[in-house]
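TICKET: design request
STATUS: open
ATTACHED STRUCTURE:
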């Protein structure tokens, strides 16, 4: 069950989240956040310790929401599909959505967070909790499909879960390229790889 967050803390995170939609975390200024949220500096420190704590808490919340939504969608497909063909058609559609060029900012933010975690042990500890939770949600969805005989049972559901997240994140490499791979070429390759998971 999600931990209840104080309304003031939520207001601060909502304000930072809005700013993150168009700004790098380092470009967000504490005075702007306080002004737009209407929250006092003392309240910020009370809930987050410091401004860096607020930025990190907001990034964690965004990470969890973005990636968990994919896992929940996978579970919905596994539960609602009526056949193996129906399941894989829906999974391929879901996969293609996560690879859209318009999702580049989501991929970039996730890559940035992984980079931040590599140099900040406290943030890494918190991010790892969220990552483990998200991986587990996706693995459970894959296990449901394995039980129905739609996904190869010889493959680890957890390994598939990590792989699915990894190739989506890997698209961030192409997102910053000067000469981008045509989206249809990338999707074609992804679908071939997904086909190897079929039972």
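STATUS: resolved
RESOLUTION: sequence designed for all positions
ATTACHED SEQUENCE:
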């Amino acid at each position: 069950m999600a931990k209840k967050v104080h309304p003031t803390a939520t207001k601060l995170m909502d304000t930072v989240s809005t700013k993150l939609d168009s700004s790098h975390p380092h470009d967000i200024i504490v005075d702007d956040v306080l002004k737009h949220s209407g929250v006092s500096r003392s309240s910020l420190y009370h809930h987050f310790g410091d401004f860096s704590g607020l930025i990190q808490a907001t990034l964690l919340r965004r990470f969890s929401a973005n990636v968990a939504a994919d896992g929940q969608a996978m579970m919905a497909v596994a539960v609602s599909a009526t056949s193996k063909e129906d399941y894989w058609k829906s999974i391929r559609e879901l996969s293609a959505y996560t690879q859209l060029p318009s999702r580049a900012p989501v991929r970039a933010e996730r890559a940035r967070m992984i980079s931040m975690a590599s140099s900040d042990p406290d943030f890494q500890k918190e991010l790892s909790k969220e990552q483990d939770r998200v991986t587990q949600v996706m693995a459970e969805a894959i296990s449901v499909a394995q039980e129905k005989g739609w996904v190869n049972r010889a493959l680890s559901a957890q390994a598939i879960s990590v792989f699915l997240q990894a190739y989506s994140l890997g698209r961030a490499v192409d997102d910053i390229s000067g000469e981008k791979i045509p989206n249809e070429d990338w999707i074609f390759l992804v679908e071939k790889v997904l086909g190897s998971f079929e039972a």
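CLOSING REMARK: The mean pLDDT is 91. The chain has two domains: 1-49, 58-195.
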